[in-house]
């Protein structure tokens, strides 16, 4: 039955059945309940009859002096095992009848009896001479001894016990005695036999089995049959992510998380640099492409709309063989102008300077040129292997260009004296390169906010026009800027724009 709310039905049944059982047991049938229990019904000898001996049992006699033929002892317990008190008026007998319960012993006669235990001393007066407490014989077709018990008021949990000596009726059947018969009725309640037990009752076992079956059935449905509906903000379709390679690790984790939550969505990646990503989006012109850029787009692409996503930190990275870890802004600019060709000139080791750059369409490179080189463009590359100038290339400091952040980090790690730049999250995960302090300041959010550290930029998401609210583009952007997406952004060393004390820092041109 597709669409039937089985989970709701099972949950209601799991609550309702125990609740009804509780009310039935303790508020309805069990509210006023008198219980009886035959705790002992034992003959005095292993065989029928016994020869007179000096034993005290042999001296048992009826009131008329006759010795008992086949005596037996019976211990009877009467108890209030309901949830409310029982008064004398609760016994369903005539108003003038002093007897509330009658206990019959077929095939036996009552030789004597005594009250052996009272749960409360005040119950003793209920068994006086005119209380109705006594024993007699009935002589219908099946003779039986009868014990008459008075209408004893019992508080909840109260009880009393009667010990009786009985004898087989002469010429009666030599077979085992029939079980005692307890006759009586309680108004608005019941009189029933109770049994002493150490384990749970049958009804409790049945209730436990019912709850176990409900739990197993519900678990089976959850694991095998049920397909959880996607969250309300899920969208389906295919989305191509393009643009920044520096922000790509964040986007790959975020898209994987989104696709797991929303199975109808799929993603493809074409991250070849911020500028090329913006060009691809502008050319596609639809909701199927989302571009990310390190920094604002500039004056081009008027139909592309920016959305600030994260405050991103960048850092210069250097090969440990250079012997340098701290540079001033002036030294960095001199290095990239070609004025410093060997690290020993500024206190490092005797190693030639080799610069590993990004391609000209890289958003990270634009950030580096804008924030560190004060808007000055880097010279073109002159090397293919980052170790020596290529044949016919301009002489001077060795410069090579790489297409992605990881390519830059790989080159810096293997080339002695190499210097490059990268987004902070990717650089801190590498142990084979060193992060460079700028004017003594390491790359921190606090340093960037207070203008002590200059190498940072806003990460933007760009759409072609305003996406439809129910599109995958709009849904994924909401996901990226909500709690799960924020956690992913933060885990890669960036800071969500919405969490900045001064969110204006994330606006274009801040």
Summary?
By secondary structure, the chain is α/β, with parallel strands linked by helices. About 25% of the residues lie in helices and about 25% in strands. The protein is built from eleven helices and 20 strands.
Beta-strand percent range: 25-35%
Total helices: the number is 11
As a percent range, the share of helical residues equals: 25-40%
At the fold tier of CATH, the topology name of the largest domain is Immunoglobulin-like
* Radius of gyration, whole Å: 48 Å
Structural classification: alpha/beta
Largest sheet: 11 strands, mixed
C-alpha end-to-end distance: 59 Å
Give the quaternary arrangement of the chains. Answer: single chain
Gross morphology is rod-shaped
Mean of pLDDT: 84
| Low confidence ranges | 46-54
> How many beta strands in the DSSP annotation?
20
Q: How many discrete domains?
A: 4
Name of the CATH class of the largest domain: Mainly Beta
User: What's the architecture of the largest domain, going by CATH?
Assistant: Sandwich
Protein name: Phosphate binding protein
Transmembrane segments: 6-30, 201-220
Domain PBP: 233-482
Organism: Amycolatopsis keratiniphila
């Amino acid at each position: 039955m597709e669409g039937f709310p089985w989970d709701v039905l099972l949950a209601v049944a799991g609550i309702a059945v125990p609740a009804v059982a509780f009310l039935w047991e303790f508020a309805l049938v069990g509210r006023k309940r008198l219980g009886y229990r035959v705790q002992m019904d034992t003959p005095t000898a292993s065989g029928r009859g016994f020869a007179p001996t000096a034993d005290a049992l042999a001296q048992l006699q009826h009131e008329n002096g006759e010795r008992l033929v086949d005596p037996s002892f019976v211990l009877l317990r009467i108890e209030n095992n309901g949830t409310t008190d029982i008064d004398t008026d609760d016994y369903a007998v005539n108003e003038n009848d002093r007897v509330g319960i009658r206990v019959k012993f077929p095939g036996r006669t009552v030789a004597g009896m005594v009250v052996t235990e009272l749960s409360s001393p005040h119950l003793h007066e209920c068994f006086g001479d005119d209380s109705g407490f006594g024993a007699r014989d009935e002589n219908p077709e099946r003779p039986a001894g009868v014990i008459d018990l008075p209408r004893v008021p019992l508080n909840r949990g109260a009880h009393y016990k009667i010990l009786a000596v009985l004898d087989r009726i002469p010429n009666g059947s030599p077979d085992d005695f029939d079980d005692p018969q307890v006759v009586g009725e309680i108004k608005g309640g019941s009189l029933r036999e109770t049994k002493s037990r150490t384990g749970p009752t049958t009804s409790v076992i049945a209730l436990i089995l019912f709850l176990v079956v409900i739990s197993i059935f519900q678990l089976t449905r959850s694991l095998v049959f049920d397909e959880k509906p996607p969250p309300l903000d899920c969208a389906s379709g295919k989305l191509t992510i393009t643009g920044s390679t520096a922000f790509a690790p964040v986007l790959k984790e975020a898209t994987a998380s989104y696709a797991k939550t929303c199975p109808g969505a799929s993603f493809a990646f074409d991250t070849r640099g911020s500028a090329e990503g913006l060009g691809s989006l502008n050319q596609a012109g639809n909701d199927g492409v989302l571009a990310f850029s390190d920094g604002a787009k500039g004056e081009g692409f008027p139909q592309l709309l920016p959305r600030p996503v994260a405050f991103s930190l960048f850092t210069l990275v250097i090969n440990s063989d250079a012997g340098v870890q701290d540079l001033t802004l002036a030294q960095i600019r001199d290095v990239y102008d070609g004025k410093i060709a060997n690290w020993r000139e500024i206190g490092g080791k005797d190693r030639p300077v080799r610069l590993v750059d990004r391609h000209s369409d890289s958003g990270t490179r634009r950030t580096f040129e804008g924030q560190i080189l004060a808007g000055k463009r880097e010279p073109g590359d002159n090397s293919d292997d980052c170790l020596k100038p290529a044949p016919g290339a301009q002489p001077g400091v060795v410069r090579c260009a790489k297409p992605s952040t990881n390519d830059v980090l790989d080159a810096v790690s293997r080339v002695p004296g190499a210097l490059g730049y990268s987004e902070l999250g990717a650089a801190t995960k590498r142990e084979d390169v060193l992060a460079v302090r700028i004017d003594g300041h390491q790359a921190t959010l606090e340093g960037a906010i207070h203008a002590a550290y200059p190498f940072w930029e806003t990460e933007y998401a760009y759409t072609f026009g305003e996406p439809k609210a129910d599109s995958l583009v709009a849904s994924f952007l909401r996901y990226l800027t909500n709690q799960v997406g924020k956690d992913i952004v933060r885990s890669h060393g960036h800071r969500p724009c919405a969490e900045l004390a001064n969110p204006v820092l994330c606006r274009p041109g801040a």
